[in-house]
Amino acid sequence: MAIARPIMWAKPVHVPESRKALGKVHSYALAPRRRTCRCMPLRSRLDLRGEWEKDKHNSDLEAYGRMLSLIGLTGLKKTGALKLINGLVIEQNAQPPQLIVRYVVSRVQFLPQTLESFAAHHQTQMPRRDGQPGSQTATLAESENSIQTIITWGEPNPVSLTETYTVQHEVLTVLAVAEAQHQTVTCQQVFKRTS
Q1: What's the pLDDT score for residue 117?
Q2: Which of 123, 133, 137, 159 holds its CA 20 to 30 A away from the CA of 10?
Q3: Residue 152: other Cβ atoms inside 10 A
Q4: DSSP per-residue letters across 4-58
Q5: How much is the pLDDT for 114?
Q6: Distance between CA atoms of residues 195 and 183, nearest Å
Q7: pLDDT tens-digit profile of 11-25?
Q8: Could you tell me where the beta strands, DSSP code E, fall in the chain?
Q9: Do the beta carbons of residue 104 and residue 114 sit within 8 Å?
Q10: Which residues does 185 contact at the CB level (< 8 Å), separation at least 6?
Q11: Which residues of the chain have pLDDT under 50?
Q12: Exposed, middle or buried, 103 (CB in 10 Å: 0-12/13-18/19+)?
């Protein structure tokens, strides 16, 4: 069954002072103009809402660097993603089922703030994570114990990126699997809840 791809647009979102403490946050929320697909109920019991600080000691930064290279980030963009991303701010809504992920960076002048929005009942579109012209398509899949996001984009350098979120004892694990150029890289990042 074909899935409609609603056109997305950005609008400013107020960020509380407590979230600004993690880093300068310039946020935009993405919202669909229309809904053309049936809404599926939110099945996951995971609560991802809040602020998460990156645990660089327990994250696989070597594999993360390989994944960034595979998806097309090089030079200053790759270095910035490796060194300046300090955590995540996640919003999670049940109705409509939606997940919004902001990457918190320490120096936005070197690495722009990234926000990605996912919905359980349709595909969303947003700027490509690799910074190339065009857009990426994102979807949300859920189970009782995990939430999974699937991102794809086309030429140049077509990529499929799946990230699985799980939480245990206030620790968020994000397992990413990137596929591009007939290669696959898997990496795990760990975050600790701060609020």
Answers
A1: 93
A2: 159
A3: 15
A4: ----EEEEE----HHHHTTS----EEEEES---SPPPPP-------EEEEE-TTT
A5: 81
A6: 37
A7: 444 444 544 444 443
A8: 8-12, 28-32, 50-54, 85-93, 98-105, 114-119, 124-127, 135-142, 147-153, 159-168, 171-180, 183-193
A9: no
A10: 63, 66, 67, 70, 177, 178
A11: 1-16, 18-42
A12: buried
What's the one-letter identity of residue 127?
P
> 29 with 41: CB under 8 angstroms?
no
97 three-class SS: coil
C-alpha span between 171 and 103 (Å, rounded): 17
Neighbours of 36 (CB within 10 A): 12
pLDDT score, position 10: 39
The pLDDT assigned to 162 comes to 98
- Other CB atoms within 10 Å distance of the CB of residue 157: 14
- Quickly tell me which residue has 């290279």 as its tokens: 69
Per the CB < 8 A criterion, the answer to whether 14 and 26 are in contact is no
User: Collapsing DSSP states into helix, strand and coil, what is residue 160?
Assistant: strand
For the entire predicted model, the pTM comes to 0.75
